[in-house]
Design a protein that fits this description.
The complex is a heterodimer.
Chain A: H1 5-25, H2 29-54, H3 60-90
Chain B: H1 4-26, H2 30-50, H3 54-79, H4 91-113, H5 116-119, H6 131-138, H7 147-168
Helix pairs in contact in B: 1-2, 2-3
Classes of the chains: A mainly alpha, B mainly alpha.
């Protein structure tokens, strides 16, 4: 039995599907951020796996993942700062109750 | 032909990724959901180690498991009342989300399985890229150098630090 490219892409695909489900159904802002992290992580796996199987000897996929991790960390830190500030003003992080900016 | 240990390791990692991803988005308690996210990130790091990207696995553990999950746990504890669970979803929303996720997975799976000769590729041999090589590529201006994105990311991180301080500061 061999480990093929497809076998690494399937867990990543399922992870992305879980992220989409959580992003669309969760009501807590932090839970939405967690689902977003799942999606970003599955994309990182795809970059690495394609680089390893199809372009071994080059390092483009690895560097893309490296920069993606850095940008995801920055984005998460900023988003959590915004969420904490919203919580301080509205006393809640439920997206159904935060509707002051809605038309 | 892979060694048996490698195959067993692959199945453990794949199972961990699938099970903990599902638990992350279905768990009712949000702190538990963050813990399951941590397990998913660790499994991803193990996947990178298995694919011979040791540096990437280390970065994944240090940045994701060490940084982002701690941020999540802090903000959950700051915004959540103890013992408060998420309310159960109404079935309308759940079915819509499930439909979107399953439709996306189905489209991607059809696309993947239609490229079988491409996806059935064996694992080629590759030396683990060593740190000297990575550092050279990261700071070179040659054809495959990454100096410009490296500097752009450093400016982005600075902007992010300043933005985080300004946003989260008490007025």
């Amino acid at each position: 039995m061999n480990l093929t490219l497809l076998m690494y892409l399937i867990p990543s695909l399922i992870m992305f599907g879980c992220g989409v489900y959580g992003f669309l159904t969760r009501k807590n802002m932090i839970a939405i951020m967690i689902s977003l992290e799942l999606m970003l992580n599955s994309i990182d796996i795809n970059f690495v796996v394609f680089n390893r199987y199809l372009f071994h000897g080059q390092m483009e996929g690895m560097f893309f993942t490296l920069f993606a991790i850095a940008i995801a960390a920055a984005e998460t830190a900023l988003a959590l700062a915004i969420i904490i500030n919203v919580f301080r003003i509205a006393k809640d992080v439920d997206i159904n109750k935060i509707n002051k900016l809605k038309f | 032909m892979e060694s048996l240990g490698n195959i067993i390791m692959y199945f453990v990692i794949a199972l961990a990724i699938i099970v903990f991803s599902v638990l992350t988005v279905t768990s009712r308690k949000i702190l538990r959901s963050a813990t399951y996210l941590l397990f998913v990130l660790f499994a991803t790091a193990a996947l990178y180690f298995q694919l011979d990207y040791a540096f990437l696995g280390a970065v994944q553990i240090a940045v994701y498991a060490g940084g982002i999950v701690v941020l999540f746990v802090f903000s959950i504890l700051l915004t959540q009342k103890p013992g408060e669970d998420a309310k159960p979803l109404d079935s309308h929303h759940r079915w819509l989300g499930l439909l979107a996720a399953v439709a996306g997975i189905a489209v991607c799976a059809v696309a993947l399985f239609s490229y079988t000769q491409f996806c059935g590729q064996q694992l080629p041999d590759m030396a683990d890229p060593d740190i000297a090589q990575i550092g050279h590529f990261l700071l070179s201006t040659d054809k495959f150098g990454y100096l410009l994105p490296f500097e752009a990311v450093s400016v982005l991180l600075l902007a992010c630090i300043i933005g985080g301080v300004v946003i989260a500061r008490r007025r």
